[in-house]
Structure formats: C-alpha cells, structure tokens
Design brief:
mainly alpha, 3 strands, three-stranded antiparallel sheet
Length: 408
C-alpha cells in the first residue's frame, strides 16, 4: 500500500485513514462518521477540527454518498494491491424505526424477534442507544419486564433487562415511571429468586436485573424505599455471595443496600436478613479493593444499631477481620473500620469483647494507627477508643508495651 497514491480527499482529517462512511459537518468539512461522532461526544466544547468553528453535539452529519462511491470504486480498482472494498454503511437508526419495533413487541408472533433486534441495536453503538432512549425504549422495556413477571415468562428477559440498562437515562419521564413502580421492583425480586437448572447461564439475567435495581433505587421515592418488605432484604442479601455474580453486579447490590439504610426500618431489616454475617464471609474471600470499601461502608451503617453490633461480635472472626483490614486497603476503609471498632468499644464492651479485641490484635492496630501516617481525625478517634478501656488493656501481656508509648 506504500506505493499507492491515495487521494488526499479520501483521508479523514481526524483518523488519517481512508474514510469508510464519509459525512459532511455543518462547517462543510468531510470526516469519517465514527471519528467525528467520537470527537463531538468526547470534547467539552466541540469545534470543527479543521475550521475550529463551533460544532454542536446535536448538529446533523450529512452522508457524502458521492465521495463514498468514489472511494469504493478506487478500492475496487486497486484490489490487486491488497486493498479491500469498503462496505456500504448502514443507514443511521431512526426514531421511527425504533417505534416500529416497539409496536411489534405487542404482537405475540413478532415480539421476541423485535426484542432481539433492539438488543443488537443497543449493543451496536452509543448513537443507537441515544436514539432508543429518545424514542422511549426504557419505558417499553419496563412494561415488557412487568408483563413477563405477571406471566412468569423467562424467555426474552435477558434481552429486556440489557436493553433497559443500556438505554436508561434519568429523564423526568423515566424517573416518574419507576420511582413508585412496585411492580418493577417485584419483577426484579422474582428474577433473583427463580431457581434454574442451568444457574450459571441464567445468572446473566440476575446480574442485569441487579444493575437495573440500582438504577431504580437511585431515583425511587421515599414511599417505595420505606415500604420494602423483609423478603426483599433476605433475597438481596443472599445475592451478595452468589457464585456467578459479576463484580459489577456485586458492587451494585452493595450500593443498593447502603442507599437503603437511612430509610425507615431498613437498617434493622438488612441486619435481620443476615447481612453482617454475609459481609464478613464475603470479605474473607478477599474480593478486591472497591468491593472491600463498600463492605466496610455497609458494615459501618449496620453497626450503628445494637443488633448489627451483636451480629459482628457473634461472628467468630468478625472483630479480627475488621482489625486486619486497617492500614491495608485504603483511607476510606481505615475510617470505617475504626468507626466500627469505636461503636463496639462504646456500646458492646463486655469483658469477653474487650478480651477478644486484645487477643485478635484490634488494640495493637489502634496503637499503630496513632503512630502511622494517617489523618489527624483518625488518630484522635483511635486515642478515644484506647482511653475508654485503658485500664483493661494497658497491663495485658497480649500487647507489646512500646505500642502504648505514644498513646501514653
């Protein structure tokens, strides 16, 4: 190809490659569609790369069919040099086409095929997803998911959840549609509870359902958040250690439970669902930094109530796990782990608990926090915990005397 003279007007000014789908911007300059759309999408104040004139994100790009045909003819003429002919690009997705597919969803014999086409389109490009969002695809998917739930139908749910996740945007219409939609929440709960003979394959649907659940919780009304039943929390807490849960879905589920803590009696319900035990067991599996940070954030919420603290103390390695993560993960984890130990030391300090804190190294770790390169507020909190039970811990043979030096 080095010996071939490529006409300069075949070359995209951005990618410097032969254009596959030439389009002309409102500034009169022709670019390859993919390159200019990516340019406009990622630039803060998009301007034409050549003329430097403003290029609004909603401006139309006009297909340059004549230039495309010239490029295709040139590619064919130079096929002997190893140049492949560029294919004729597909027409951009239109709202009218998306609405036609929406109507087909209501026709039994066309519903599944229309759903699969929408799934392909949503996965194809960001431009398609924007077009589908503008056409109200999220609303269509919510209606379809609720309908499948009412019919106890599983076929097509994977596509419906994936399309909803990909085309969701927090518009006023979408928020109004889901913020008090108990049927949609119940639909997701049903999906998470369904047992399937091929659970590994069906877990894709569960992962997608959890991502959608986070979207709902982010915009849900206080009425919906406060009226969630115990079964909701038993099901969602159980999913935390599901064998085939993706890291993205696990983080989404942790975010859901964290966001639900402040509402009504949700914190108590989460504790009663066994969340403290599940979180400790999950953390013992070393799930990764970001998951650990979320685990400790949720633990800090749950240990603010007596039942939560009781569950952590009851677990054989609860206090030990919290202690060992201090100074090992991140400043955020340090903050929440010390906070958990502070609540235990203040409100659950039986002789047995104080002895365990000493035995598993929690007291030694607090002394290390005081001497480590930590934020001053964290050192202050560690000192306060040590002062609470100084008489119990200072003379113990379980802790090296030098660790108390700076504290004293």
């Amino acid at each position: 190809m080095e010996d071939i003279d490529i006409p300069t007007y075949f070359i995209c000014p951005i990618s410097l490659q032969i254009m596959k789908d030439p389009v002309t911007a409102i500034t009169g300059i022709t670019y390859d569609r993919e390159s200019i759309e990516q340019w406009v999408l990622t630039a803060e104040d998009a301007a034409c790369p050549v003329t430097k004139q403003p290029l609004p994100s909603d401006s139309d790009m006009t297909p340059n069919h004549t230039l495309r045909r010239l490029i295709q003819a040139w590619c064919t003429a130079n096929a002997n040099y190893g140049i492949d002919r560029i294919p004729t690009p597909k027409s951009p997705l239109s709202i009218s086409h998306v609405l036609k597919l929406h109507r087909q969803l209501n026709i039994p014999e066309l519903s599944l095929s229309a759903l699969k086409v929408l799934d392909v389109l949503a996965n194809e490009s960001e431009k398609n997803r924007k077009c589908m969002a503008d056409a109200g695809t999220a609303k269509a998917m919510v209606s379809l998911i609720v309908k499948y739930f009412q019919e106890h139908r599983i076929l097509g749910l994977e596509e419906a959840f994936r399309i909803l996740h990909l085309t969701w945007k927090p518009s006023l219409d979408n928020i109004y549609m889901v913020k008090q939609n108990f049927d949609l929440t119940e639909s997701i709960l049903w999906i998470l509870q369904v047992d399937h003979k091929d659970d590994k394959s069906y877990s894709v649907v569960k992962n997608l359902a959890i991502l959608v659940l986070k979207t709902i919780i982010d915009v849900a009304s206080s009425s919906l958040l406060e009226r969630l039943q115990n079964n909701f929390f038993h099901v969602t807490v159980k999913m935390l250690r599901h064998d085939h849960l993706s890291e993205q879905a696990r983080k989404a589920m942790l975010h859901v439970l964290i966001d639900l803590c402040p509402w009504g009696r949700n914190r108590i319900k989460i504790v009663e669902a066994g969340a403290v035990f599940e979180l400790i067991e999950l953390e013992l599996g070393h799930p990764g930094k970001h998951v650990t940070e979320l685990i400790f954030c949720l633990l800090a919420h749950l240990c603010a109530c007596a039942d939560g603290r009781a569950q952590l103390v009851k677990h054989a390695v609860g206090i030990a796990m919290v202690s060992k993560r201090i100074l090992r993960v991140s400043p955020g984890t340090d903050d929440r782990a010390v906070h958990v130990l502070a609540m235990i030391a203040r409100h659950s300090a039986t002789d047995e608990v104080l002895g365990e804190m000493l035995k598993v190294g929690a007291v030694a770790k607090l002394c290390m926090v005081i001497q480590a390169d930590c934020q001053d507020y964290l050192k202050k909190k560690a000192r306060e915990i040590l002062r609470l039970h100084n008489n119990t811990w200072t003379n113990s043979p379980c802790i090296a005397v030098y660790l108390f030096t700076k504290f004293s």
